Amino acid sequence: MGLGKTKPLHLVMPVWNRGTRGIRGLSRAVALEGSQKKGRSLLQFLADRFYDVQALREYLLQKQVLKVHQKNRPFTYIKERFGPHAAGAYFILKQGGAVKFQGKEWIRSDAHGHFSLDFLKFQAVPVEAVNASGCAINYQGLDSLLALKELRSLWLQRCPHVDDWCLGRLHPLANSLQELSLAGCPRISERGLASLHHLQNLRRLDISDLHAVSNPGLTRILVEEMLPSCQASLLGSNSLPGPGEVSRPGEPHSPNPVTSPDMATTTSRNPALDLSRDSKYPYSNVLLARFPVGHPSAHGPLRHPWPPLAKRPEPPWPPRVPANPSATNAALVKTGLGLCSSFPR
Amino acid sequence: MLRRALQLGLGRGLLGRRLGTHRGGSTLDQNGKMSEIKKKIQSVLPGGAWNPPYDTSYLPPEHSDVVIVGGGVIGLSVAYWLKRLEKPRGAIRVLVVERDHTYSQASTALSVGGIRQQFSVPENIQLSLFSVEFLRNINEYLAVVDDPPLDIQFNPSGYLLLASEKGAAVMESNVKVQRQEGAKVCLMSPEQLRNKFPWINTEGVALASYGMEYEGWFDPWCLLQGLRRKVQSMGVLFCHGEVTRFVSSSSHTETTSGEEVTLKRIHEVHVKIDRSLEYQPVECALVINAAGAWSGQIAELAGVGKGPPGTLQGTKLPVERRKRYVYLWHCPQGPGLETPFVVDASGAYFRREGLGNNYLGGCSPTEEEEPDPGNLEVDHDFFQDKVWPPLAQRVPAFETLKVRSAWAGYYDYNTFDQNGVVGPHPLVVNMYFATGFSGHGLQQAPAVGRAVAEMVLDGHFQTINLNPFHFSRFYLGEKVQEHNII
């Protein structure tokens, strides 16, 4: 098993790290400033000096990307033969998620990735809930999900490849989707959340632990203004995932090893210690943060060394008057120029 | 071995000198000169460091297969696709000549950054769709090993185009074409508009088209830097200089109709180094004119348009610089997070910027009120008179707003039909155009780059057919008019 599997901070041969999913593996190395110098691996050294080694690394990078694409291929035969609901369910189960048909129990694949194909017999029974937490589902893979016209709840927690583009695609589910969880997805930002306004029937939205969101409190307010009948939560999921979910022993390395609650889930298999699930502990994120330095968000340098605490949201207006305003400053504040958010130019 | 021979030779020389009559200091002199010569020879031998007499790293190379004039998003996109589609790897030497490395006047950097498929010309829609796919997978296309991934900060909020009674029929037919090409656009009635966006005043709006997917806005600077980084890693050379002259040869031929034409072939490009009188002639096989707002001047240097008017010889490139203003304002009660890029029927547009109730917007002036493009000074009265009233009428919340800042940028405006010019010039046989996009160059850049690269490498377009955008339409008078110009 790879050297870098359990310690994502070390730069030892990230290319050979079989546990690294997606194309973040190689780039993750650059975001960690401290260990950059001492962890420079032989492969990196050679790649800087020889085109052939660089080509090899690019090829390996491409292979990682292709692996994700392969996981998200469409299952057209199943779709034609058994209908879109069965195809969607098959896709999710293949990725390692869980599916709930209307009136039936949760179906999930076991430790070795096998699952029973009984659900193919439910031809017309629609899929009601999908738990795709931690799955490598991406933009292409959403095709299978969007065909599930009666989907009520969708959990996309900690999916490493779900980004703003994917959120823009969710509008066909507007009629039925009532619950959506995006907790812990590293690539989702407030820009993608803006496209959720199509989902008018949404009642519960979980946007906690999104590292790429620059201002979580403000975003939550704006999302609630955008979707008046929806309740957006920042403090972890209030609705527990399906009863079938336990940490799978066959998967010691989670797809997104950086997010702390996941580490707790996999390293301590004791459900009592699984604080992320319990909403009684609002600061569970802090307690479980074992990697204070080195949460490389997908977008380059670090924003918070600790996962963001849920702060009281600050309104952008009116501007706060500083403690000792000089005359000029007071004048500026009065005209509104004292408040300056970041402008493009 | 050579060194030993040198030593022997030196030894013999010294011995030889000693036997004859000599002056006192000449042996030392010989030693000094010899060691210098020895050093020079050692540096020329492989394995030694070559120290040329002076530093020439700022000069472009003397030979280059392709010279791309202009290092904005279109030029870099062409360079990227040339290097990506070339066979075998490393076959083509590409040089990008950019006059201003700070991009202070470049249209790319000053752009509002929107991308949409709501055009009337099918080719534009296809270009935009390809570019959206490129932007979505930008970290697969522009991945450089060991560099952090790019975040172009795409807002998938869509475009909302509003039409009055007059334009409703045109909008309907446009949307039909757009949906045929694969864009996800839907038509909305004023009532649906009011339900979806309660902050809009639908008075005077007969129809609206709203892009559900693949539309929005992003950060053009990030795309530019990402392309630059990737293109440098692929081996494209950059030069900080200005193209001042083309050295070409011409030959006279007759067309089938008996008309005498002069075919030109560019042999050398003179690149003048920034802040210096020094220039370097770069021998090249092809020149790609991606100079944006200054493409007209580059075309004139190459001899495009030098001839009696009305002939192909005398048809100039009708691309000129037009100044456009963009204003950033703050409106405390303005529309919320779901605001799309709204384009009013009057031509005024705005979009949300960030989370703090800030908005960017502007309006294209009519032909009569075109500002002087000599500089990039902002006219604030233009906002008061031409931008604010239609926007305040459309969005009542905008009646109270405060302008925070403003800037101006150039459109490479195609005065003929406001669409791009892509492809070779019929007479100057090795000059290719990729310019004239009149405000939608950024959103079509990845696709145009690919099209030009295919034209250069294969001789014809393969993915998207841009034959309607050929230069000869200016001579033939066939307009490919784009109606949805913002």
From TrEMBL, chain A:
Region called Disordered, residue ranges: 238-277
Gene3D superfamilies from the UniProt entry: Ribonuclease Inhibitor (3.80.10.10)
Polar residues bias (residue ranges): 256-270
Tree of life domain: Eukaryota
UniProt xrefs under InterPro entries: LRR_dom_sf
Annotated transmembrane regions: none
Subunit structure: Interacts with incompletely assembled mitochondrial NADH:ubiquinone oxidoreductase complex (complex I).
Family assignment from sequence similarity: Belongs to the ATP synthase subunit s family.
Role of this protein: Required for the assembly of the mitochondrial NADH:ubiquinone oxidoreductase complex (complex I). Involved in the assembly of the distal region of complex I.
Protein name per the record: Distal membrane-arm assembly complex protein 2
Protein's organism: Leptonychotes weddellii (Weddell seal)
TrEMBL record, chain B:
Domain FAD dependent oxidoreductase: 65-455
Keyword Electron transport in annotation: yes
Cofactor: FAD
GO CC, one annotated term: mitochondrial inner membrane
This protein's UniProt keywords: Electron transport, FAD, Flavoprotein, Membrane, Mitochondrion, Mitochondrion inner membrane, Oxidoreductase, Respiratory chain, Transmembrane, Transmembrane helix, Transport
InterPro entries registered for this protein in UniProt: FAD-dep_OxRdtase, FAD/NAD-bd_sf
MF GO annotations: oxidoreductase activity
Pfam (any one): DAO
Protein name: FAD-dependent oxidoreductase domain-containing protein 1
Organism the protein comes from: Leptonychotes weddellii
Name of the gene: FOXRED1
